[in-house]
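Recap from last week: sequence in, structure out.
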Amino acid sequence: MAKTKQALERLEEELYVARPETIIVISPHGKLMDEVFTINHSPTLQGDFSGFGDLETKLEFKNDLPLAYQIRERLETDLPLILTTDSKLDYGSSIPLLYLASHLKNIKIIPVGYCQLDRKAHFNFGNEVRKILEMTNKRVAVIASADLSHRLIKEAPAGYSPEGKKFDADLVKYIKEKEIGKILTLDEGLIKEAGECGYRSILILLGLISEINYKADILSYEGPLGVGYLTANFIL
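Predicted structure tokens:
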């Protein structure tokens, strides 16, 4: 996974230069709810990799509680949203934060979980969060964490499907070309057959930046383990 590692190292450098005060991290691997979005409101957040056999590496962050509460206050009347309290970060948050935030001193985190509501709800969620961020003076970065297809090769975790490669190729192409409409209307059968876990994270991110002039910089894409790994920087 050399391409992904190198891309994350490059992205870390750019994030370090940007000096964010808070990172919103959207993950598919926390305690997700079927019909409500979640914001983890635990004051402190710890991550480790004991599940992968690494007993030494540990992460610890403080939550940006005021900003998290502002998001909840604004959105709860328009979109289904609840606050949760879990001090342990899931690996969908811990892994990107390990690579991207290790050198950002005093950085605060807001973990967000998507749900099983339709794609429009996820896009709208991101759009509403953007409105809140526009009213704050804080420098906020957003990480959309997740994998693309889990079905790229026969040895893949979810088995093989030719639709996996098509889903990944289409999504990467549309992201690069800023074809948000095409991403929002991807065939439902293709999405399901791809066995992905990243589509909703990306929809939230696109909702956040859809009304901002941005450039989508594709830093790497590979799938050596049968799972699609995309690293991209959305430059505002």
